[in-house]
Design the sequence.
């Protein structure tokens, strides 16, 4: 888990600065039926909100924990990330993920084995979910960094 935490911290710190360096046109450029770079970051905000709840709830709700999916495209549209102030969006993304890092650092070793039932009925554990969250973050950061986008 320590490697995932280090990777997570590096992704968060390095990319909060990188995102600030991007120009508005590059961030808001849209291809039909795809998210802009700004909307990808908004999706990462939605993901962080939902996962913060998951990483917290699993500690006190009955086990196995039931993983609830969310409507990614609907949330990106409803939250209007495309028109949001970029500095505010970066700050929101950074703040929520900073809290998730605090949770990751304090998770009890035994909690990493807590079972989670996915919507398709398959089973994972908290260790997998936490590491997968970092991989998901890295995947979308890499999309933002690509010259040709997206999703």
Sequence:
């Amino acid at each position: 888990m320590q490697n995932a935490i280090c990777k997570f911290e590096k992704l968060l710190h390095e990319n909060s600065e990188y995102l600030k360096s991007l120009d508005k046109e590059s961030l808001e450029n849209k291809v039909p039926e795809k998210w802009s770079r700004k909307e990808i970051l908004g999706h990462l905000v939605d993901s962080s909100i939902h996962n913060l709840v998951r990483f917290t709830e699993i500690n006190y709700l009955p086990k196995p924990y039931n993983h609830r999916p969310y409507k990614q495209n609907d949330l990106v549209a409803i939250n209007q990330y495309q028109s949001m102030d970029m500095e505010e969006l970066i700050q929101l993304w950074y703040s929520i993920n900073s809290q998730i890092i605090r949770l990751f650092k304090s998770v009890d070793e035994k909690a990493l084995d807590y079972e989670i039932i996915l919507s398709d009925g398959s089973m994972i554990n908290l260790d997998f979910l936490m590491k997968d969250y970092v991989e998901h973050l890295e995947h979308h950061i890499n999309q933002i960094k690509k010259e040709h986008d997206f999703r």
The chain has a mean pLDDT of 95. Strands lie at 65-66, 115-117, 123-125. Residues 69 and 129 are 13 Å apart (CA to CA). The chain has six helices and three strands.
